[in-house]
Specification:
The protein is an alpha/beta fold. The chain folds into three domains: 3-62 and 115-185 and 289-365, FAD/NAD(P)-binding domain, CATH 3.50.50; 75-107 and 187-284, D-Amino Acid Oxidase, Chain A, domain 2 (2-Layer Sandwich), CATH 3.30.9.100; 370-414, no CATH class. The protein has 13 helices and 20 strands. It has helices at 17-28, 53-62, 64-71, 114-123, 174-179, 240-246, 250-260, 314-331, 339-367, 371-383, 385-393, 398-403, 407-414, and strands spanning 3-7, 10-13, 33-37, 50-51, 78-80, 82-86, 92-96, 109-111, 130-134, 137-143, 147-153, 156-162, 164-167, 188-198, 209-212, 221-226, 231-239, 272-284, 292-293, 296-298. It starts with a strand and ends with a helix. Bound molecules: flavin-adenine dinucleotide. Flavin-adenine dinucleotide is lined by residues 13-19, 36-39, 45-50, 138, 168-170, 174, 192, 194, 235, 237, 280, 282, 300-302, 306, 311-315, 317.
Length: 417
């Protein structure tokens, strides 16, 4: 075995959206770093494949030309203009993402299989400041004054020393387990199944993504997301504790809804399942948790940053990667990689920017336990264009979204105020 030793400033484990996001911005700051990825791209990731405005925002900040590249390929990155909510009583509500849209507006979201999207991100990582080891396995991670990672790459043993490690290695994060000794498992976890179908009918002509809050999967939902080339990503997501408590067979439940639900089944009459149905965990951001410590930071799923209501994790992964790189840029001149310093430079900044949004989503997620509340809002919104407009604005206006978690919002609807 050939042996090699590398001294660098940062070592990133994982090259999904979180790791790619961190690497893009470290390169922008001209900070030398190493990215270690166990898979070889392109690779699959079980996901709903829906990317929000936050994903577009980070890509645009990393390099506006990359976002233009995406927006110019609407056959591969399907623009989505809104969301369809289907209440437990079966009533549907179409909510556009941008109520004040003009002719020049670009769709705020898009869908693309992760097989393609993550490969797109990965191909953007190379820079003079980054060394990438793809298809590498980690032999050991040790912490002394610096972090030392030993990897096996194509049979060669490579030892990497860096003052900081960024754990961007997904929901089963090895870095989280190794470094966050008192908090190895995210507190709230959901599980999801994903299937690809061809030939599902009845999609919105502006590619609205669909969330069906079926009574049997509350507080989770079944989704149908249109994909490029006439395909669809179909899945269910639900809290793990609900699966355990009610002894739910998620796969059977999803297939039963597709076969028997009166609104859904006719749309699948001529649809074919492509490949297998795969499952994966969703570590949800229900409450503030530590994201860093001496010499390490966690990003994306490794940090349990999935939005507890929408299930959105790609945007938060990219965003947290960006903030971790900013934190490195801040602490590097001081050579202070202590837990106290990183908490200020990373955790505090992240929760200042995303904390309110995550808190509101956690409350909304809890409210999903009450099907009558859902039915009530959707029934009222059907009759009231102004309520539909308010809900639409909630996608971009956090103050407005906060109203959803207050009893006064529902009382106002009740009395038509
Ligand atoms: C069923 C389901 C549906 C979802 N739907 C959506 C959706 O529609 N929209 C949305 O925004 N989010 C969705 N999410 C969440 C989203 O998939 C994740 O939040 C997102 O992938 C997190 O990105 P990440 O980079 O943190 O982790 P990942 O995407 O998991 O990337 C981690 C990377 O680290 C690598 N890695 C892991 N271990 C090691 C190791 N030991 N050494 C080296 N490399 C390693 C992996 O190979 C991988 O490439 C969904 C999740 C699930 C499970």
């Amino acid at each position: 075995m050939n042996n090699q030793t590398i001294e660098t400033q940062v070592v990133i484990i994982g090259a999904g959206p979180a790791g790619a996001g961190a690497s893009f911005f470290l390169s922008k700051y001209k900070i030398p770093h190493v990215v270690i990825e166990k898979s070889t791209f392109p690779r699959d990731k079980v996901c709903g494949d829906a990317c929000s405005g936050k994903t577009a925002l980070v890509i645009n900040r990393a390099n506006p030309e990359w976002l233009t590249e995406i927006l110019n390929q609407s056959t591969e990155y399907l623009p989505s203009w809104g969301i369809k909510f289907v209440a437990p009583n079966g009533k549907a509500l179409d909510i556009p993402f941008s109520p004040n849209r003009t002719e020049d507006s670009k769709a705020p979201g898009f869908t693309v299989p992760r097989f393609d999207f993550d490969d797109f991100l990965f191909r953007k990582i190379p820079s003079p400041y980054c060394t990438i080891y793809e298809g590498a396995s980690i032999e050991s991670i040790e912490k002394g004054e610096k972090v030392t990672v030993v990897i096996n790459h194509n049979g060669a043993a490579i030892t990497i020393h860096a003052p900081i490690i960024i754990g961007a290695d997904g929901d089963k994060s090895m870095v989280r387990k190794k470094f966050l000794s008192e908090n190895t498992v995210p507190k709230t976890y959901a599980v999801g199944l994903r299937a690809y179908y061809e030939g599902v009918t009845g999609m919105h002509n502006e590619n609205f993504i669909e969330l069906h809050f079926l009574p049997e999967v509350l507080p989770g939902y079944l989704w149908i997301f249109p994909l490029p080339h006439g395909k669809a990503n179909v899945g269910v997501g639900i809290l793990s504790e609900t699966v355990r408590e009610k002894k739910i067979n998620l796969r059977e439940q999803m297939l039963s809804a597709i076969k028997n639900n009166p609104d859904i089944a006719p749309r699948f009459a001529n649809a074919t399942l492509e490949g297998k149905i795969h499952g994966c965990g969703l570590p949800l951001a229900m409450e503030r948790q530590p994201l860093s410590g001496d010499n390490f930071m966690l990003c994306g799923d490794a940090a349990a940053l999935i939005d507890p209501f929408s299930g959105e994790g790609i945007g938060n992964a990219l965003y947290s990667g960006m903030l971790a790189a900013m934190a490195v840029n801040e602490v590097l001149p001081e050579q202070n990689f202590s837990a106290d310093r990183l908490r200020i430079a990373y955790d505090d900044v992240l929760y200042k920017r995303l904390g309110d949004e995550l808190k509101i989503s956690a409350t909304l997620q809890r409210l999903c336990k009450y099907p009558w509340l859902f039915n009530f809002v959707v029934n009222k919104a059907h009759k009231s264009p102004s309520l539909r407009n308010t809900i639409s604005c909630m996608f971009t206006d956090m103050d407005l979204r906060q109203q959803l978690s207050k009893p006064s919002f529902y009382l106002k609807i009740l009395f038509n105020r």
